[in-house]
Amino acid sequence: MSRLVVISNRVPMPEKNGTAPAGGLAVALQAALEERGGVWMGWSGKSSGTRDPAPLALTERGNITYALTDLTKTDVEEYYHGFANRVLWPICHYRLDLAEYGRKEMAGYFRVNRFFAHRVAPLIQKDDILWIHDYHLIPLAAELRQMGFTNKIGFFLHIPWPPADVLFAMPVHEEIMRGLTHYDLVGFQTDHDLENFRGCLVREGYGNAIGDGLFSSHGRTFKGGFYSIGIETAAFAEFAKKAASSVLVRKARQSMEDRDLIIGVDRLDYSKGITQRIDAYESFVSRNPAHHGKVTYLQITPKSRSEVPEYEAMQRTVAEQAGRVNGVLGTVDWVPIRYINRSIGRPVLAGLYRLAKVGLVTPLRDGMNLVAKEFVAAQDPEDPGVLVLSRFAGAARELKGALLVNPYDIEGTGNAIARALTMGQEERIQRWRGMMDHLLVKDVQHWCDAFLEDLTTDQKKKRGLRQR
Ligand code: ADQ
């Protein structure tokens, strides 16, 4: 079996004893690396002012080498905060209005990708399989090919892929499209993303769809597929069951005083639809006096990317909005919204999911959304809560037992909250069972195995891809 070389912007480092850090992706990729042996390379998160960053920091854990590189301050500004998070992230989330395209940032993005290629090159062996992750590193395969590497290289995009009319508004879209054609397999989260990619490729003549999931471009043939990422479903369910009786979760339950709990858990990001969600909750409370004093909406939102101006502004907006709703609708003995602006340990998070009657996952656009899957996995099978899910999350393609909403429809989402809170036990169990059965099969291990199998299987032997 060939070795695996994983390259991603950041690397979740394992504990000293080799245990993978929390999070399904880290666990699944580490398991794949342990099985095959190999390398996980990425940015250390550190930046220096010098032009020549320190040599790669190598850490050996069993048969895996973790390789971290520093970047310069300019690199971080242009590649990471600049092109990746201020151009590709908004464009891929259909937010043309927020993309701030600049030639300097674009040049920095391609420069850092070339730098990554040169850094990882000495660690790559002849038969290694390479798996590159996410929008930060799209041009990496092209750089490696230019250096003469003929290894199998796969790419997985964790965020959505937009339709042609959105992508083509980005001045540098041609280079980005061409970058993807240098992979052997390009994987997306959903069939919709794959369809959008096909549209982009064919419409501008960057390549052709030649059937069976194969594309041709400038003499190369590559595969495209969709591989919906999952979580460690069985382990998370077990975790939530235990966590529900932990001291912290019991205290949280007491502090709710038998009120129904509605929970939202998201990084602070405009794509997650948090302000629209608070509006929807306000609409629900205003129109349903019978629920006054009987419900608590807990929104847990750690800060992210504070260096990007939109994110900083959002911190203020959401805090003010939650304060305003509490001021208008709250009473001396009832606070309608509890807003927490920090990370929470996974055991407590799992216990809170289980405690909640409703999970509100209403992004305006999301590649997949693992919170939706974690919420389902954490439920009590005898008395499960209801998932209210945006139709614009990748997870909506799979979780058919959720109440699907359009997050831009504030009243409609408010109505779904009311419906979820009053849904009978039989219907809740029926909806939950279907989703849980699906998630137990399509877990993160399944995602990882499916991608690697398609990447390593010879195209001639296997025309066409299964739908994963
Ligand atoms: P993200 O945008 O980060 O990931 P998501 O899929 O929701 O979004 O994953 C977030 C993770 O962070 C979840 O595991 C969640 O439990 C955790 N988390 C969120 N808030 C937390 C808090 N306050 N405390 C502790 N943990 C918290 C990107 C894409 C997604 C895609 C994933 C994986 O944007 O669409 O699902 O990658 O491919």
From TrEMBL:
The keyword Metal-binding does not apply. It holds the Pfam family Glyco_transf_20. Pathway: Glycan biosynthesis; trehalose biosynthesis. The keyword Transferase applies. It catalyses: D-glucose 6-phosphate + UDP-alpha-D-glucose = alpha,alpha-trehalose 6-phosphate + UDP + H(+). Its EC number is 2.4.1.15. Keywords: Glycosyltransferase, Transferase. It comes from the Bacteria. It is an enzyme of class 2 (transferase). GO terms for molecular function: alpha,alpha-trehalose-phosphate synthase (UDP-forming) activity. NCBIfam families: trehalose_OtsA. Belongs to the glycosyltransferase 20 family. Homotetramer. Probably involved in the osmoprotection via the biosynthesis of trehalose. Catalyzes the transfer of glucose from UDP-alpha-D-glucose (UDP-Glc) to D-glucose 6-phosphate (Glc-6-P) to form trehalose-6-phosphate. Acts with retention of the anomeric configuration of the UDP-sugar donor. This is Trehalose-6-phosphate synthase. It comes from Rhizobium helianthi. The gene is otsA.
